[in-house]
Design goal:
There is one protein chain. Strands 1-2-3-4 form a four-stranded antiparallel β-sheet. The chain has one domain. The protein contains three helices and four strands. It is an alpha+beta fold and 99 residues long.
Length: 99
């Protein structure tokens, strides 16, 4: 009886690990690369790159918080907010898909 319990728990652990890897890889592919956006502070175009490692890791347990890893407006505007809201990301991907 104990061997069935251990086998069952092992199967659940493997399934959870596979799920986590699949979700993280899909998030990484989705958010990887530079994007052209309008800076909310200056209203000027800016090329940004999301911190995909954190976004992919956080997406395993729920909606990720998006942080910028690079921005063409830095270093002169490095004091700006580096967290990108979910609404801004949705608008960003909608713009990329439609344009």
């Amino acid at each position: 009886m104990d061997s069935y319990l251990i086998s069952g728990l092992g199967a659940v652990a493997v399934a959870a690990l596979v799920y986590a890897v699949v979700v993280a890889v899909r998030a990484h592919r989705r958010f990887y690369g530079a994007r052209l956006v309008t800076c909310p502070e200056t209203k000027q175009p800016a090329a940004v790159t999301l911190d995909v490692r954190d976004a992919a890791t956080e997406s395993i347990l729920g909606p990720p918080r998006f942080r910028l890893s690079e921005c063409s407006r830095w270093p002169e505007r490095e004091g700006c907010g580096q967290v990108v809201s979910g609404q801004e990301v949705r608008l960003l991907f909608q713009t990329l898909r439609d344009g």
